[in-house]
Design brief:
CATH class of the largest domain: Alpha Beta
Largest sheet: 6 strands, mixed
Mean pLDDT: 86
Oligomer: single chain
Strand content: 15-25%
Number of strands: 14
CATH superfamily of the largest domain: Zn-dependent exopeptidases
CATH architecture of the largest domain: 3-Layer(aba) Sandwich
Low-confidence stretches: 1-20, 144-158
Length: 402
């Protein structure tokens, strides 16, 4: 046998040896495309995006053209080969003597379990996930920007910078394990009031200034994190590039917020409101064409009334939006139930009423508008400045969306 023929025969035998350890000849892990997914974002979710061979293999095994658009809810094969774990070693399970490859596969599977993509440890269910690149092209050859996105927007809550890493939530909270998938396929738009050149109401509390937009933003961001943790696609419409979720009592007032797409917030009120409703409607139309059936908008504000006027959370919907009324009512019921559970002796005086507000009127999405309390009232201020209370507000609103 000549040397070239021997070399090719050896390679074929090695390839057959690897294939024989797989569960079947073409046994790849499958995953459903979520709203907003392209090939890049789907691969990024499983930490496969930095190797060009994974991209090529994805198109090949799914028989897709390079310009294919993924369909929401459809399952696609990922460049992750499923191997039967023999209960002994990864090397003997996949038919390789390479210790480094085996260790990388172990770390990958443990990370997928940690981040909620795997339901069971491979040591228990005896199924190994083996990324295609670890066997074929281990060197990274795609430079991933810190905050990538396929549609030109930066720092998106719905687009992780790595497996379950969402920088918009800040360093402390950026890792968001998948707690459940009951909201998978649903789209939520979360809009916190004011921002940029308009801080909303400003109130002095001792030597500190409370700005309405900062507290509404923090509660909204916590709500988005809850939604993402349960599989939802969640859009944070007004965004701050560096605040993240904060646990401080007194949140620093600033004016660097932007609107989705990294666009500066307009100065005048009317154009500013249309700027937000327009971007929400564009995203709504995109997802509707993808076949998404559940889309909801929550607008979060903090009220400003006379200092002696205490208010509980109350909700608005547009009079011509029956789905918005239903949404506002569900949120109200969630808050009411939690008040009864944790503060039964106090009572709850919230309400659900209709109002012809811009964001309710101009948005195509079923919408509910919530006021978190009176920023001037001492007791309502405690609801806002204590971080654990802000988290409870986000949790209770989230329960109304489940």
């Amino acid at each position: 046998m000549t040397w070239p023929m021997f070399r090719w025969t050896t390679l074929i035998l090695l390839a057959c040896a690897f294939a024989s350890f797989a569960l079947t000849e073409q046994d790849y892990l499958k995953a459903e495309a979520q709203p907003g997914d392209g090939v890049y974002s789907l691969l990024r979710r499983f930490d496969l995006d930095k190797h060009s061979c994974n991209h090529s293999q994805f198109y090949k095994i799914n028989k897709l053209k390079s310009d294919a658009i993924l369909k929401v809810g459809k399952s696609y094969s990922l460049p992750i080969i499923l191997y039967k774990f023999n209960g002994k070693t990864i090397r003997s399970s996949i038919g390789s003597e390479n210790w480094n490859v085996a260790k990388s596969i172990e770390i990958y599977n443990d990370n997928m379990l940690r981040d909620g993509y795997r339901n069971t440890d491979f040591r228990k269910d005896k199924i190994l996930w083996v990324p295609y690149h670890l066997l074929n092209c281990p060197a990274e050859d795609i430079n991933t920007p810190a905050l990538p996105n396929e549609n030109g927007e930066a720092n998106l809550a719905v687009e992780p910078a790595g497996p379950r890493i969402f920088p918009i939530f800040g360093k402390k909270y950026e890792h968001v394990p998948l707690a459940g998938d009951e909201l998978r396929g649903n789209v939520y738009f979360i809009e916190s009031g004011h921002g940029g050149p308009d801080p909303g109401a400003m109130v002095k509390l001792g030597s500190h200034t409370l700005c309405e937009d900062e507290y509404a933003y923090d509660v909204a961001l916590r709500l988005v994190r809850n939604l993402v943790a349960h599989g939802a696609t969640a859009y944070m419409i007004t965004r701050d590039p560096d605040d993240g979720i904060r646990d401080d009592k007194y949140l620093k007032c600033d004016s660097d917020e932007v609107v989705w797409g990294n666009k500066p917030i307009k100065v005048r009120q009317k154009p500013r409101l249309f700027q937000r409703s327009d971007v929400i409607n564009e995203l709504y139309d995109k997802h509707e064409k993808q076949g998404v059936t559940v889309q909801k908008l929550i607008i979060i504000h903090v009220d400003s009334r006379a200092r002696g006027n205490q208010t509980d959370l109350y909700f608005y919907y547009h009079p011509d939006d029956p789905q918005g009324k239903k949404l506002a009512t569900e949120l109200y019921k969630s808050v009411e139930a939690n008040y009864k559970k944790y503060r039964n002796g106090r009572g709850y005086d919230g309400s659900v009423t209709s109002r012809d507000l811009h964001m309710l009127r101009e948005s195509k999405v079923p919408s509910a508008y919530v006021e978190l309390g009176n920023i001037k009232h001492p007791q309502d201020q405690q609801r806002l400045i204590i971080a654990s209370n802000r988290q409870l507000l986000a949790d209770w609103l989230f329960e109304g969306l489940k």
